[in-house]
Write a structure and sequence with these properties.
The protein is α/β, with parallel strands linked by helices. Helices cover about 40% and strands about 15% of the residues. The strands form 4 sheets. Strands 2-10-9-8-7-3-4 form a 7-stranded mixed β-sheet, sandwiched between helices. The structure holds pyridoxal-5'-phosphate. The site of pyridoxal-5'-phosphate (PLP) has 13 residues, from helix 4.
Length: about 400
């Protein structure tokens, strides 16, 4: 790994209206160290910055199109070069975010009262959006053996059999537990979808952020015979720290759903035009950002290793769940306390703003999620605070 990019630089994000730093979770003191929202405290790749500067200097920021050959090609080239996934550019649709995309898809693909499977502990907007649309959450909790997470296929099949269930939102890689599902695991999910004729929305927003030696499998590679039942959500936002630019790519194969997407997202909402900076940033990211990403992955691996060592040394009863992907550390402190309120208070006492485990479902009680996409110095300070907080519970 080279050392071309500076991930150690601490950049002050105050006065940039950063949600992570300005909208702290309830109860966290104002000057807390913020490692909750999933964006990065690293500057974007200089290749992206110069593309955006060039666009800025042009001076005109009028309506901008999504369906252009250079943008589509940058997206499809990325997935075919890195993951051997040959997307048809006509199947790729714009949405400002994956969460709004999932929300629209639920509207298009289900009726009120229909059941949708999720696997808790899981990214909490899945629950919020299912419920906000008047649909029913059908939870198939992941299995946790005290060390590792896996899917509970027996339970999952029961849930798929339920006639009120219409589909499943899959999280690959899984936030917060950090699993990058294997080909075999994904194949089992695809087999259920095929057997019981259910749809799958596969949220692959974290797909590029895998640990060294771990391979992400696109869900489509195990679902080639049921593509009409699959929607895949991807974006450069997590990978390249572009969430605020709001450009996501939704891959829809089913022609009827494509038609419905256009009628709803284009015609009803009039939402089809990204901002000009997002377009330039995405093209630069996918065409020129690979070297930066590879170096970032190495840096993140180092942060995970650091957290692991600190926990082993200072909190031997705690567990860092082995991370295969995402930049989110999922840590089990249940041996110290299963009282989520006490854990949360301990974090706030130490002025540390994390995502508390329980917000991902009751399966997350006793856990904390810490965002490690920050310079090592910040992660070190966060670990000092975390360790003091947990020790205070003993
Ligand atoms: C699994 C998952 N999906 C979606 C999102 C956010 O998507 P967006 O900001 O594009 O709505 C996140 C952000 O943390 C996430 O972890």
């Amino acid at each position: 790994m080279g050392n071309k990019y500076d991930f150690d630089a601490v950049i002050d994000r105050r006065e940039t209206f950063a949600v992570k730093h300005e909208m702290l979770p309830k109860g966290a003191p104002e000057d807390s160290l913020a490692l909750w929202v999933a964006d990065m405290d690293f500057a974007v790749a200089p290749e992206i910055l110069s593309a955006m500067e060039k666009r800025l200097n042009h001076g005109i920021f009028g309506y901008t199109m999504y369906h252009s050959e250079p943008l589509k090609r940058s997206i499809t080239d990325w997935f075919s070069r890195r993951y051997q996934w040959g997307m048809n550019p006509r199947d790729v649709f714009f949405c400002p975010g994956i969460v709004p995309a999932i929300s629209y898809l639920l509207e298009l693909m289900t009726e009120e009262g229909d059941g949708v499977i999720i696997q808790r502990p899981v990214y909490y907007p899945f629950t919020n959006k299912i419920e906000a649309r008047g649909r029913k959450v059908v939870n198939s909790p992941l299995k946790y053996d005290g060390e590792l997470y896996s899917m509970d296929f027996e339970d999952l099949e029961e849930k798929f059999k339920d006639p009120s269930v219409k589909g499943m939102i899959l999280c690959n890689p899984h936030n917060p537990v950090g699993r990058v599902w294997t080909k075999e695991e994904l194949k089992s999910v695809a087999d259920f979808a095929k057997k019981y004729k259910k749809w799958i929305i596969s949220d692959e927003i974290h797909c590029d952020l895998t640990r060294e030696g771990i391979t992400y499998t696109p869900f489509v590679s195990v679902a080639e015979d049921i593509l009409d039942q699959i929607v895949v959500c991807t974006a450069p936002s997590k990978t390249f720290n572009l969430a605020g630019l709001q450009l996501s790519n939704v891959v829809i194969f089913n022609k009827e759903w494509q038609k419905k997407w256009k009628e709803y997202v284009w015609d009803v909402l009039n939402l089809s035009s990204p901002n000009p900076f997002a377009v330039e940033a995405t093209i630069a990211a996918y065409n020129e950002g690979e070297e930066w990403l590879e170096e970032l992955r190495g840096y993140l691996d180092g942060n995970f290793q650091y957290v692991k060592e600190r926990l082993e040394k200072d909190l031997p009863k705690a567990k860092l769940i082995p991370s295969e992907g995402t930049y989110l550390a999922w840590m089990d402190f249940s041996a110290y306390s299963k009282d989520q309120e006490a854990l949360e208070k301990a974090m706030h006492r130490e002025k540390l703003a994390l995502d508390e485990g329980y917000i991902f479902g009751e399966e997350g009680i006793g856990f904390e999620r810490m965002n490690l996409a920050a310079p090592r110095e910040i992660v070190q300070e966060a670990m000092d605070r975390l360790i003091r907080g947990i020790k205070g519970l003993e």
